[in-house]
Amino acid sequence: MTRHYNFCAGPAALPAAVLERAQAEMLDYQGHGLSVMEMSHRSDDFIAIAEQSEADFRALLGVPDNYKVLFLQGGASLQFSMLPMNLLGRGGSANFVHTGIWGKKALAEINHLGLPHHLAASSESNGHTAVPRQDAIQVSDDAAYLHFTSNETIGGLAFDYTPSAQRRDGTNVPLVCDMSSDILAAPLDVSEYGVIYAGAQKNIGPAGLTLVIVRDDLLDQAQSPIPSLFNYRAIADANSMVNTPPTYAWYLAGLVFQWLKDDIGGLAQMEAINQRKADKLYAAIDASDFYANPIAKPNRSRMNVPFVLADSALESAFLAEADKAGLLNLKGHRSVGGMRASLYNAVSEDAVDALIAFMADFEQRRG
Amino acid sequence: MTRHYNFCAGPAALPAAVLERAQAEMLDYQGHGLSVMEMSHRSDDFIAIAEQSEADFRALLGVPDNYKVLFLQGGASLQFSMLPMNLLGRGGSANFVHTGIWGKKALAEINHLGLPHHLAASSESNGHTAVPRQDAIQVSDDAAYLHFTSNETIGGLAFDYTPSAQRRDGTNVPLVCDMSSDILAAPLDVSEYGVIYAGAQKNIGPAGLTLVIVRDDLLDQAQSPIPSLFNYRAIADANSMVNTPPTYAWYLAGLVFQWLKDDIGGLAQMEAINQRKADKLYAAIDASDFYANPIAKPNRSRMNVPFVLADSALESAFLAEADKAGLLNLKGHRSVGGMRASLYNAVSEDAVDALIAFMADFEQRRG
């Protein structure tokens, strides 16, 4: 067995230690005589797994007691519908800071549903190479919440600050953030947010699980009627088991949380590693005329590093040779082309070193 | 490692051969250097897995070319919302044959959504111990479809015929069936149905995957607007990849389909095994005054066998001793109590023999 270096944007690399543990427990979970996959979600054994997973997640992020953590299905994209249906029941409009393709999709969905929305700021004018600054964010008077994407997975554009917005009466507009591609990459002050949501398949676990962190006061603002399985309050009251949850993905997420706690030492340590990885790769790109990344330095993503070659005709050779060298999934998103190296938590510093060495070698041979 | 006999109603037992294969491939799928969980859903490798999984499923059931197979999230319960939103866009009402708790939930959801519905038949008057006969099904003049639950998982009540309904002009009302707990248990004539749907966690694979088989002419009858991820047409056009699908569950389902084809030999062989298993267990129950099952013989489920003890005070002793003997998850659903043995495809004849032997022994000692 050989494990290659996997730079996939998602579903993404998982820690080998997590996969090894899952492998060992696949047919017999801790002497219980069955796989986690084969357990009733209402059994004591699975409830213990689910509760430990949530407890570890809460501990890692320091989730305050007045927030619920929901374990859902449907991906972050389903939240593009669920969010406005849950938060606009008392009127008002969804406000958006648009910084790339995922934010645009969130906006498109609310438009498709015919629900009130307002574009509070956009980085479209700079080609999404720098996020709007705080003073450029103009929320509407009826803003029910302000939505942004902390890290645009495709563009590689990340916020270097937490945006905020006040109503005329001085109260804060609840902040809603799609953190799919950078949750758990660094410590976070959850109390600044109303809702944080994330598809699992980058830093949490396998595809098919979505985590939503929601402040208690936002649980009871749903429109009516909406599908029962959309209702945050009902889901929270049922501990995310209104119906059968994706039990195996939930378990695997728990193993990832344990790895972050025990093997890495927590999110501050994880952030230091992530910062080193990203710094190295951007330094290599910036030191060369052969590679380029267009993002303003303060907004460069630590998770997703898109880059292009000076000679785009060499792209397919780059990708083919990288693949042969065991550096997988470096192709940029089909909508933008070029290259992209995703450096999620499970991508080791060794992987980044190997990529940088390959890039230098390729440049020397073909540049 | 010991594998116990697992009679869980869902998430349910999986074939050991499937889990062993998944275990072997957990860290390195066929020499590709990564887990299936870590693959982009748009990679050639995963597309091949997904297409093979669908092809095997279609082959097993003989799904005609004018039906799409959708691989979704959210469980069968999410279909309780998605179905009417997809099928009532041209008007008319959803008609229901109500034979137990799951059918009741489907009906409750459409009522919650405020969409038109009509109760065409119900077995409530006989305590859901026998399904309504064909001539008792009275559809409304505006019936857009007729929904039924082929096998009620909690009650252990199964249809012994395929219901049908005609409009005044003689055309058939599309038949919609929740087959969560008996799909793949026996051959099926898919062409009799408009839509078949099933949560995976009984006979298909792990929880977190839902399969929907839908006839092409029913893809374009959606209400507007509905959430983009609810739209059958959009999902079908994107080969179930509008967003990231539950890739690992999809792969595991594929392994189950291969097991059904190669190890079992197909659905006719599977049905023969399932029939033997169920016949044995019902015979043991009927031969005793100590155990009882209330369902009319033609409607007894081959998948879920609920039973009670003559002395209900012995239930907890029965369950505790069974558990100690390696016979897991025999407790009835919390809404009805008693016992329930689920005999899905992956539950072996040996498991049923062991259960019957335990029941005889328990009766002798405690009866």
TrEMBL record, chains A, B:
Q: Which protein family is it in?
A: Belongs to the class-V pyridoxal-phosphate-dependent aminotransferase family. SerC subfamily.
What lineage, starting at the top, does this entry show? Bacteria, Pseudomonadati, Pseudomonadota, Gammaproteobacteria, Oceanospirillales
Residue ranges that the Swiss-Prot or TrEMBL entry lists as coiled coil: none
Organism listed in the record: Vreelandella salicampi
Question: Which keywords annotate this record?
Answer: Amino-acid biosynthesis, Aminotransferase, Cytoplasm, Pyridoxal phosphate, Pyridoxine biosynthesis, Serine biosynthesis, Transferase
GO cellular component entries: cytoplasm
Per its record, how is this protein called by name?
Answer: Phosphoserine aminotransferase
Pfam families attached here? Aminotran_5 (PF00266)
Q: Which cofactor does it need?
A: pyridoxal 5'-phosphate
Binding residue positions for L-glutamate: R42
PANTHER family on file? PHOSPHOSERINE AMINOTRANSFERASE
Instruction: Provide the assembly information.
Output: Homodimer.
